[in-house]
Amino acid sequence: MSRPLFRRSGPARPATLRDLQSSGWESVPVKEELRRNLVARIRSGERLFPQVHGYDTTVIPQLENALLAGHDVIFLGERGQAKTRLIRSLTGLLDEWMPIVAGSEINDDPYHPVSRHARDLVDEHGDATPIRWVPSDARYGEKLATPDTSIADLIGEVDPIRVAEGRYLSDELTLHYGLVPRTNRGLFAINELPDLAERIQVGLLNVLEERDIQIRGHKIRLPLDLVLFASANPEDYTNRGRIITPLKDRFGSQIRTHYPLDPDVEMHIVHQEATMPTVADLEVRVPSFMSRVIAVLSHQARQSPHLNQRSGVSVRLSVTNHEAMTANAVRRALRSEELEAVPRISDLEALVAATSGKVEVESLDEDRDGEVVDRILRAAVLEVFRELVPTDLHRPIIDAFEGLDGVSTGEDIGSAAYVYMAAEEVPALKPAVDALLEGESSNGPAMVASAVELVLEGLHLSKRLNKHAAGPRARYAARA
Fold first, then answer.
1. The predicted structure's pLDDT at residue 65
2. Which of 59, 73, 150, 190 is the most exposed place for a label (fewest CB within 10 A)?
3. What is the distance of C-alpha 410 from the center of its chain?
4. What domains appear along the chain, each with residue ranges and CATH number?
């Protein structure tokens, strides 16, 4: 029998238990619901996580295996690896709507109610029991594990107000359910699980194995139907906290996440997540080579021996740096009254402040933070220059500087001056500039200025040109 999903634009949803039975709706466990909808996605070729990039051949196949197997899952990875986003996105594998007994605190299945309230309601009204429909996104619960998290938060507690109203302590209706039972017939996630006190972790053992809960010694068996997910940072997993062995044993799958393995993937994430400043009468463009500098900077940071790699270098670093670089370009364009804001190499000075707060420098000298970040930034610029500017274009530029006193760059120099530089002062720059701007949506003056600065800085970092920085300006000249 096919199972109607009662979509928002579909037919009216049943309002009573009798109507629900007549509709042909069938009740299945959450794990089976996830499995069925995942199978449909795989067969259709539809992407499971369209907003998550870089995991198509690593993490996602492991997650698909876990869902097909009906496992509870723990994601193990450093900060900024989309662990929580992966978990939250799984609500897309739930049916669009789910019926519950009206007024139920724990999403009671109309066919198999488990709470005292729902059982009494079905006994009283029978086929006329009112039904309420819950959307898929309301079937997700989440808790950030903190040392002060209690059993009452997760499982439940006796509600003193209900006792004061005249109920006996032994009455099941005095219970106030915690986050886990309130997510019955859904997905529940615990972020940073090792931070959860070990005695509280014990309270989850029955949830994962026997699928029931016990509250304050009440003689009730409340069978829950849910899938449990958790996340943990490897550093916390082994040093700051731990997951008790019996709890770890109850998770079916442990999946290791990772940072983007390729700068192109990191650039894709940055373009998806970063916000662009919106200013009236000012067009903001970011050349792909400048976005690439940002992505390569993060990859260089993840390999640097001067940074604490156990704490990780989050993808959020790339997003923040991209936003800081663009904001500096906008500020510069506003002051120079230009109509287009395009980031240049001179705008990368804004990245030091944005980067320092997101990485941990391993040095006994606290004053070295800026120096370490600047060194990583220079390495990123040099790598992008070598990758995008063909080496056969370097020599003509170097030869042209032999007959010049040098050229100046800086945020106080307008884009028109760079265009004149490439066309009249150093015509040898033009082929390299054209190579950088190939495929860009614009090759206007501001884009030319950005390309010129990258070429000059790349030649300096390659030790082919000298650079003298003074205040907001830098001067490039031939090497002595």
1. 97
2. 150
3. 35
4. 17-256 (3.40.50.300), 263-478 (no CATH)
Tens of pLDDT, residue by residue over 313-358, are 899 999 999 999 999 999 999 998 899 999 999 999 889 888 888 8
Going by pLDDT thresholds of 50, 70 and 90, the confidence category of residue 363 is low
Q: Which amino acid would we find at residue 402? A: E
Distance of alpha carbon 60 from alpha carbon 64, whole angstroms: 6
Do the Cβ atoms of 32 and 42 come closer than 8 Å? no
Question: Is the pLDDT score of 168 beyond 70?
Answer: no
Residues with Cβ within 8 Å of 15's Cβ and at least 6 positions away in sequence, in order, are: 130, 131
Q: Is 253 exposed, middle or buried (0-12, 13-18, 19+ CB in 10 A)?
A: middle
pLDDT of 445-462, one tens digit each? 999 999 999 999 999 999
Q: Which is it for the CA torsion 126, 130, 135, 141, positive or negative?
A: negative
Strand partners, 97: 135
Q: Is 389 in contact with 430 (CB distance < 8 Å)?
A: no
Q: What angle do CA 68, 72, 73 make, to 5 degrees?
A: 95
